[in-house]
């Protein structure tokens, strides 16, 4: 008897070497094995007599071998050829295998067998090459005479071996269905064990489709209900309540700019959440430059004025330092103390206190009211006094464990959580993956719609583009040049920062002040370069995507992206967002050698779409949900069966999940569903 959690090496016939091969496919348990879904099927259902067998199509024969012989190929001396004569009542034919001399001993003579493959004519006679074979018995064939499953393989595993072990596991599988019979009847579902068996060994295409529908529903349903379950569980937690709207109005009156309608709406939604007795879990999404930081700053101010601390997590030191400067400028006259902590830098808006230990003490005793930093804030030695709000910028850069760790930095009440992203999430993904989050959206731009024109160039256009860049530089404007790599790679043959920096300095712009920025530089070096670029001391910056997030330099109006086909659409849009800020017109020049039709269509879509939300929908079509979220930040693993484009099944799964949670928020009456959810959540946290 086998259970989902049974380790694969407990399956009869799985030794150390075989287990290692399965591990390369990510298979370590029985559950992993039976959910190794076929990538296709060979149709060997049509059975013929030898004399009547059609040529060139998949067929199955029933007969026996009367002789075998092994020989070496006269062309390749190391290649063994096994030849057998197979016959039935209507005739005989030759069967050939290459590189499998053991078959002459393994296949019994004069014993009834199924033989599945394709008949070909060789030297005027019928012949079958490398067919599958199987003994005729009372049980249903597995490798022949049916829809035969095909799988993703790795070195050391064959389709036949995988089929054998999956069939063995299914026969001994002990599994209680998480959906009762009444539920299955209402949704026209087969049982879970029947679905698992049928997806691997279907009797027909119809049965395979029914099995696939059940398994796809399960994936969509558990994704939905796990999020709803987390939302309900969050309501059982206690959080501080912040309800001083008069204070909010006075803070808004002191702002240097007027909030957009979208910002006003987002602030209202956030403040409403902060007034509840359980922790907020809200995502603030918005176009690059739509003013998310200002919204977050208002929420932070309300929390700080109530006597609590705010922890602000940024994905990079560059962005953390920029947010520190923004908060420092916004609240310079408010008496609010803001601290910065990264792995290499410490600062605080408090006179004569820049020593790292002093800053850590200010965080722990509460005198540092806003702590802005990178993952360094999550170190065990970093303590806080009383956190009321955690803000996570570019939330997709942080894993679930990291977001939880940030909220657990406060003892007692659970802090509210505000996540932010400049990569808008398509509506389909919001419905599917973010059931535990409330979403606020910023669409309008504080300084008006950004004017950035995007053009695609071939390398033959380089001289013309560089002439245009020269004109812009002469007007006092600044340029970004982004490359995929830091150092040259002979194998990849794509642009690198170091090589392009050298070329630009020596050939194209010898009189222009050019800087270099990439991940291998120290934090102090990065800070110095950015400070020089921001001050206009550098006219051009050659960089990797380290500039992708958050960098705001008004004089930068040109973005050149080398080998643009190497980047995702969302990443390209983030890069494009570095220019054309504060009402200035920007140019985004994409250079690509067009390695494929798909790459060309992606870049053309990017050039024609400036709206981040429309671009996000396009990116989803091209990349799929797995690539969009990634396991690092969401715990999400790629669907094995489900397809988010199946909106009917997605809606059915959402409705079923809502009905169950509304009826029983704690899933007390749904033990099997609750166990399954808790197992999924545990795996999710482990992945992140």
TrEMBL record:
Residues 273-442 form the Helicase ATP-binding domain. GO terms for biological process: DNA repair. Keywords: ATP-binding, DNA damage, DNA repair, DNA-binding, Helicase, Hydrolase, Nucleotide-binding. CDD domains: RecG_wedge_OBF. InterPro entries: DEAD/DEAH_box_helicase_dom, Helicase_ATP-bd, Helicase_C-like, NA-bd_OB-fold, P-loop_NTPase, RecG/Mfd, RecG_dom3_C, RecG_wedge. Pfam families: DEAD (PF00270), Helicase_C (PF00271), RecG_dom3_C (PF19833), RecG_wedge (PF17191). The keyword DNA-binding applies. The keyword ATP-binding applies. This is Probable DNA 3'-5' helicase RecG. Residues 475-621 form the Helicase C-terminal domain. GO terms for molecular function: ATP binding; DNA binding; DNA helicase activity; hydrolase activity. It comes from the Bacteria.
């Amino acid at each position: 008897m086998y259970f989902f959690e049974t380790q694969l090496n407990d399956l009869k016939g799985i030794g150390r070497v075989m287990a290692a091969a399965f591990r390369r496919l990510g298979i370590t348990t029985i559950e992993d094995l039976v959910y190794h879904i076929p990538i296709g099927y060979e149709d060997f259902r049509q059975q013929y007599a030898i004399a009547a067998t059609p040529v060139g199509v998949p067929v199955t024969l029933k007969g026996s071998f009367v002789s075998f012989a092994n020989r070496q190929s006269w062309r390749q001396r190391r290649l063994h050829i096994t030849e057998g004569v197979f016959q039935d009542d209507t005739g005989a034919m030759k069967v050939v295998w290459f590189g499998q001399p053991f078959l002459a001993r393994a296949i019994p003579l004069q014993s009834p067998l199924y033989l599945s493959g394709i008949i070909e004519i060789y030297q005027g006679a019928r012949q079958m090459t490398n067919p599958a074979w199987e003994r005729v018995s009372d049980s249903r064939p597995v490798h022949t005479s049916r829809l035969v499953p095909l799988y993703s393989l790795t070195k050391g595993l064959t389709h036949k071996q995988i089929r054998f072990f999956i069939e063995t596991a299914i026969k001994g599988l002990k599994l209680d269905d998480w959906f009762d019979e009444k539920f299955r009847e209402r949704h026209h579902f087969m049982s879970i064990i029947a679905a698992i068996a049928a997806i691997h060994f279907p009797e027909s295409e119809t049965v395979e489709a029914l099995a696939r529908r059940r398994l796809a529903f399960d994936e969509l349903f558990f994704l939905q209900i796990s999020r709803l379950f987390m939302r309900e569980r969050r309501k059982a937690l206690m959080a501080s309540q912040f309800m001083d709207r008069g204070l909010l109005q006075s803070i808004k009156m002191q702002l240097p700019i007027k909030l957009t309608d979208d910002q006003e709406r987002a602030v209202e939604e956030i403040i409403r959440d902060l007034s509840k007795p359980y922790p907020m879990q809200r995502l603030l999404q918005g176009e690059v430059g739509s003013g998310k930081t200002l919204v977050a700053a208002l929420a932070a101010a309300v929390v700080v004025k109530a006597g609590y601390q705010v922890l602000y997590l940024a994905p990079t030191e560059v962005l953390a330092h920029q947010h520190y400067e923004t908060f420092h400028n916004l609240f310079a006259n408010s008496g609010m103390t803001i601290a910065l902590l990264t792995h290499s830098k410490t600062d605080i808006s408090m006179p004569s206190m820049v020593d790292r230990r002093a800053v850590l003490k200010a965080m722990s005793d509460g005198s540092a009211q806003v702590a802005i930093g990178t993952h360094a804030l999550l170190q065990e030695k970093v303590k806080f006094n009383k956190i009321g709000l955690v803000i996570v910028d570019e939330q997709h850069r942080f894993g679930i464990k990291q977001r939880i760790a940030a909220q657990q930095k406060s003892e007692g009440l659970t802090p509210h959580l505000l996540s932010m992203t400049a990569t808008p999430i398509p509506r389909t993904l919001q419905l599917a993956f973010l059931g535990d989050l409330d979403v606020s959206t910023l669409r309008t731009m504080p300084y008006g719609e950004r004017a950035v024109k995007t053009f695609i160039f071939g390398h033959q256009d380089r001289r013309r583009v560089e002439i245009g860049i020269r004109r812009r530089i002469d007007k006092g404007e600044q340029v970004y040049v982004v490359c995929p790599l830091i150092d040259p790679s002979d194998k990849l043959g794509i642009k690198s920062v170091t090589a392009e920096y050298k070329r630009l300095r020596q050939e194209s712009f010898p009189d222009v002040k050019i800087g270099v920025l990439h991940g291998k530089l120290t934090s102090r070096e990065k800070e110095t370069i950015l400070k020089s670029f921001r001050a206009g001391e550098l006219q051009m910056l050659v960089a990797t995507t380290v500039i992708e997030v958050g960098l705001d330099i008004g004089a930068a109006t040109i973005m050149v992206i080398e080998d643009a086909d190497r980047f995702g659409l969302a990443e390209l849009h983030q890069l494009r967002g570095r220019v054309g800020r504060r009402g200035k017109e920007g140019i985004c020049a994409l250079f690509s050698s067009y390695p494929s039709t798909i790459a060309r269509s992606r870049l053309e879509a990017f050039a024609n779409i400036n709206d981040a939300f429309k671009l996000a929908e396009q990116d989803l079509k091209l990349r799929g949900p797995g690539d969009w979220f990634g396991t690092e930040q969401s715990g999400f693993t790629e669907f094995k069966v489900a397809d988010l484009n199946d909106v009917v099944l997605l809606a059915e799964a959402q409705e079923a999940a809502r009905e169950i949670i509304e009826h029983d928020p704690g899933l007390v009456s749904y033990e099997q569903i609750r166990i399954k959810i808790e197992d999924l959540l545990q795996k999710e946290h482990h992945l992140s």
